[in-house]
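Q: Entry one of two.
A:
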Amino acid sequence: MSQPLDVIILGAGSAGLAALREVRKRTDHWRIVNDGPWGTTCARVGCMPSKMLIEAANAYHARRALHTFGIEGADALRVDLPAVLRRVRALRDDFVAGTLAATDAGERAISGHARLLDAQRVEVNGQVHTARRIIIATGSRPIVPEDWLAFGDRILTTDTLFEQPTLGPRVAVIGLGPLGVEIAQALARLGVEVMAFATGKSVAGLSDPAINDALLARLKDEFIVNVGDKAELREVAGGIQVTNGSATVVVDQVVAAMGRRPNLEHLGLDTLGVELDDKGRPPIDPCTLQVGDLPVFIAGDADGDRPLLHEAADEGHIAGLNALAPTPRGFARRTPLAITFSQPQAAVVGQRHADLPEGQWVGGTVDFARQGRARVAQCNHGRLNVYAEHGSGRLLGAELCAPAGEHMAHLLALAVEQRLTVHDLLRMPFYHPVLEEGLRTALRDAASRLPKASDSDLAACEAYGASALD
């Protein structure tokens, strides 16, 4: 009988590969199993191909403002949608090749569906593998209502959208979370007639009503947005009819953008002897990623906690470290950061507006309509709100939809991570003219609502110049 493996990893996505990097530093006795195409969700069907589509869409959309710069002739530009999609696939394949090279698992890589027999045995393709530790990183898949499957390949998801040689002239996007917003705006900017449907008023994962309203207003300027009840589909002459009770349209294709579901079914989690919740998930320690007190760890989209690439990679590293540690350790998690690559870009940093402790915070805001650099660049749309602890002025979080918002979101995430105060940030240099001056405006607004700065704050401010704290 062969010796048991030290670790077997189920799934070769971002979390699984991150776990593998830690495991292979510590042992040669491991296997990695993947069901379906190899290459991460991000590289194959997620963040990378979607950003390629967005870049093409934004490049074409820029023609609408060229005349304001004194540049004529933009009306002659046209989109070759099949060519756009071919470029997306070509670049996508290059990124996938990179992730496959990084896997480099050789004979230790197994293709097939894995099923747990217990906390230390896994069956793959009829063969049983025994391991001292198991890491489950099986990822997720797009949510598609079962009755929609009857429409065949006219129902698209991110798993299939980028494989299309072209698209019909009319597309409905169902769901306006981060993914739905990005796809709907990109397709609309590429000349597709887009009708978007959402059951709630919140878009792009935003919870601050002011920021949400600002982004929603911009989106409605570019394509039709229908907010109301759940969208229903039925076959009609000429296409697929989509209705939500208040609006009805007929389209050629439907993009299902209602989120992703963890791939936990048919894994045999019921053999672990722990209670599963109503979604079929076992209890997972968020700091160690351990399932109960078992030698099993769940990481990445499979745990359904933070379905973002950088979070999946972090969880993979944690699971890989703990799988070979004598005692699993708890790891502090990074400051939450989520970005939607719309225009204006939307982001949530640190504590969401909806989760702020009532009466214990103050806000600061800026409207980019009058921000200097944004006006120069013809991108003066959007809003940014920062949230600070009432007593200390420590930055708690922010929500925004702003030009180049991804960069300000990173600055804010660094500040929250370092527990900086509003006054700390205002002492930092802000160059002129840059979009980040809008961030300074929001910080100044927050500072004006805080208790009066202490003498030590003011003395430190004077050391940096009188204009550092307004």
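Q: Entry two of two.
A:
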Amino acid sequence: MTDLDHRYATRSVPRYTSYPTAPHFHAGVTGATYGDWLAALAPSDSLSLYVHIPFCRSICTYCGCHTKAARRDGPLHDYAKTLLSEIDLVAARFGGRRPVTHIHWGGGTPSLMPREPFLAITAALRRHFDIRDSCEHAIELDPRTATPELVETLRDAGITRASLGVQDFDLTVQKAIGRVQPFSQVARAVDRLRAVGITEINFDLMYGLPHQTVDTIAETARLTRELAPGRISLFGYAHVPWMKKHQRLIDETALPDTRARLAMADFARRALVDAGYRTIGLDHFALPSDSMALALHAGTLRRNFQGYTTDTAYTLIGFGCSSIGRLPQGHVQNMPDTGGWSRAVRDGLLPVARGFALSNEDRARAAIIEQLMTGHVADLAQIARAHGLAEGHFARELAALEEMIDDGLVEVGNSRVTITEPGQRYARVAAAAFDAYLQQGTARHSLAV
């Protein structure tokens, strides 16, 4: 481990898929607040939709998602009925069909939703919203569920992109995280998706898992190259057993130490770049022809609750329990428990549990953080002016970056903050200098690398 890694990679900082981050949301933002925000949206504003399905057949021990086990389809049918009612409630606040440019299904395992309710939900979205022909319609997919019947349902629903949770192809690692799926099973899922016309494929890979080594990473990278997904997400495993109690089932003595974790991350990145993938931000990779690589080149890459994205719609509407939405006025999050969420919807209420109303300064800081996390450059003076702030408003934050500047990780000139190539692995640390809320509260975050 280098001295820089020792000082920066081991810091605990947010992933910055939003600003302020979710631990700072509060109950002062209610369903009534959300209703007012929805009604105030301009009719021409493009929307992005997120649908959360909080169910899995079993819970993988590494999982950090908001989900629970459902071994029968009954709870999924009940959930779908409530989801349809929530879509009606939200759409009623609009007074018209708004254009939608991006739809994302997350979970949990959204591919568990049976065919009939799945198609009913997508039909409801088309009825209430203007789904553009160019809309990317993506779903997170467990390769173990990719039966011929499922991929036909996804095709019939208009799915255009599937993101497969692979993590690692090594059997020992898979057993340790409770997710055994041989390479042949993943390859079969990819073949079935492509056969029905779903050719935009993502893989989610992880490093820092129990029993994982550089050798298992090397083999996973080799097998991934064989299947040639257009995009790859490479996430560091976040061991947060104080938040996710099922992670206590993981043998902590089998987790790689910081030095080994960094070696895995570096090796995986090199292997993917050598295979022809372009590096996208912190943890994404894309083939040069993929729309995400093109967005990076064009300067239109964005970051939201799904991570790096090509979605340019500012307003994100979340459906389902625990889902998070973003509007010009602020962030909202639905009730996290299916019971409370269902009761609120049944009572005709928007099921919001908490949120955050943004000030101009919050929006400015969010813009700086997003730009540092995507293109690694932010013009502080320009962003300050755009949000009604004085040109030197962020002088204190620049002072906080002095250590990174001295180490050659950040450069500052003409009000522009640039994260250098050696500093890009620590981009979250640089972004954290502009987080006015980081030291407030008791939230704990994952390691910077």
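A: Comment on entry two: The longest strand covers residues 129-141. The chain is about 35% helix and 20% strand.
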